[in-house]
């Protein structure tokens, strides 16, 4: 939960690592003996494959009548018009055009859809991260945030991975991303930057503690059992672990749900 107080750490912990992994997987498909023309043909095939993925999701959302499908429509419309029509019409992409013209077309076709998607991603994170920080102790929020970030990285860079097919080497990019990941992990592990709480005494992390007394009844109304104790309601994943380091009695506690089976 180091990202709870500093959400920008999500980029270094999960974003860069996901991007490096995806680039590495794409780099495995590159064969060193391919000619320049073969590389551009493969790049064009990957472009069509990425566009088909967006079309598939667009059709699903349209059939479900979900209004958010306009974002997927942008990822289909602008690449088709700018690269599929303008780029091919004026020979600006692939082996027919220059590297600069291809990059200009490739970047311009993603400006509007990527801006829309990044705006939605930012809005989702402003809601998603506070919820994950208070989701309780039953679910590991790091897994959910990591999975959520990986999916968003794949969507945001779905058209960018095409250029890997025509790159001389992707090793430098991967090493740079891994360096960012290593630096972020070091900062989280060795500095107070990774502490998930603010440390402000005026706004401490809440922990709900209740003294309870319970009585269980049979179906005929007679008392089956009685007990009492403390009901601890942790609001974040670290709550029970922190109490266990200071209170020895916490080591023998059990979830309340287990009592329903008795």
UniProtKB/TrEMBL annotation:
What's the superkingdom here? Eukaryota
Q: Which UniProt keywords apply?
A: Membrane, Transmembrane, Transmembrane helix
Q: Which gene encodes it?
A: Ermp1
Does Transmembrane helix show up as a keyword for this record? yes
Family classification: Belongs to the peptidase M28 family.
Pfam families, per the entry: ERMP1-TM, ERMP1_C
**UniProt KW Transmembrane helix keyword:** yes
Q: Where are the transmembrane segments?
A: 6-25, 45-63, 69-90, 111-131, 143-164, 176-197
Q: Which residues form the Endoplasmic reticulum metallopeptidase 1/1-A TM domain?
A: 1-188
The Endoplasmic reticulum metallopeptidase 1-like C-terminal domain, residue ranges: 204-259
**Entry protein name:** Endoplasmic reticulum metallopeptidase 1
